[in-house]
Amino acid sequence: MQISLPALLSQLLLGLVNGSFYAILSLGLAVIFGLLNVINFAHGALFMLGAVLSWMAMNYFKIDYWVMLVAAPIIVGLFGVLIERLLLRWIYKLDHLYGLLLTLGLTLLIEGVFRSIYGVSGLAYDAPEALSSATDLGFMVLPNYRAWVVAASLVVCFATWFVIEKTRLGAYLRAGTENPRLVEAFGVNVPLMITLTYGFGVALAAFAGVLAAPVIQVSPLMGQNLIIVVFAVVVIGGMGSIMGAILTGLGLGVIEGLTKVFYPEASSTVVFVIMVIVLLIRPAGLFGKEK
Q1: Strand 134-136 to strand 141-143: parallel, antiparallel, or no bridges (unpaired)?
Q2: Global pTM?
Q3: 186-237 pLDDT, tens per residue?
Q4: What whole-number distance in Å separates Cα of residue 286 and Cα of residue 91?
Q5: Measured between alpha carbons, how far is 178 from 185 in angstroms, rounded to an integer?
Q6: Each residue's pLDDT tens digit, 106-147
Q7: How does pLDDT run across 65-95, given as a tens digit for each residue?
């Protein structure tokens, strides 16, 4: 089977775009699990919420993409703060299963509300005019919006990693989950810090939703198509590993894109095959810490 260079590079770019969504979403999951010890199954619904809010803002209020790229994560982040304050904080000391079931119920509730309003058909959302064209690189035509998605994702992912791993705030966050009383002795409000951490984690999902809106048709069920793959990414990278979520998300997106070129039948399962192999060899994940 002969494949032209432009076709191969186009699939690589598509894989990198998908990998960018995987990276941001799995990063949010890793932040929430690593710092709060909660398996947030509502992440896909909050990803969808970011996209739907952008579509609603454009169609009902003529608010453009650039405003919603900032506003939607803030709105969803505040919604996440309410979720943590009213629901999640009561189950931190319980088994992980309770958090998973609670957030799964939230997912069904959020998706059900928007499905009853908009149905399940996709809603078109145009890319911003400044990024609607493409650049001819000679060996391929690069859509400007897809290049923007990859660049914005990389900046957000590695900025998040830097804050959590290399700053005093990140040290307080990590210490607050291990020994909250010790951190409180330094005058840090640990419950508020945990609340804001969950809000930030779901804001990342909403940010990915806004980025995805012009690429994937906006739909109340769009989060369902990604969340299972994203959970697999988190498991492969290592539950709670920030760098593992980023690198694994990007890498698996590229592998998935190449699989669509050379063996399309396996493209929908290759991530799960890799997950099984990794768990057999290294149960804690590629970047996870063995206990």
Answers
A1: antiparallel
A2: 0.93
A3: 777 888 888 998 999 999 999 999 999 999 889 999 998 788 899 999 999 9
A4: 29
A5: 14
A6: 999 999 999 999 888 888 999 999 998 988 877 777 889 999
A7: 999 999 999 999 999 999 999 999 888 878 8
Residue 115, token pair as written in the block: 């499905």
* Residue 21, CA distances (Å) to 26, 40, 44, 88, 158 in order: 8, 17, 11, 25, 14
Distances (CA, A) of 217 to 38, 152, 183: 29, 20, 44
Distance CA 63, CA 128 (A): 11
SS (H, E, C) 142-166: EEHHHHHHHHHHHHHHHHHHHHHHH
Average of pLDDT values for 154-178?
Answer: 85
Q: CA–CA separation, 177 vs 26, rounded Å?
A: 19
Contact 261, 11 (CB under 8 A): yes
Of 224, 173, 175, the closest CA to residue 201 belongs to 173
Element of type H or E holding 251: helix 242-262
E strand segments, 124-211: 134-136, 141-143
121 sits in the region (left: phi over 0; alpha: psi -120 to 50; else beta) called beta
CB atoms within 10 A of CB 47: 31
CA dist 264 → 141, 248, 258, 276 (Å): 23, 21, 9, 20
Placement of tokens 């959302």 in the chain = 125
Place of tokens 């319980």: 94
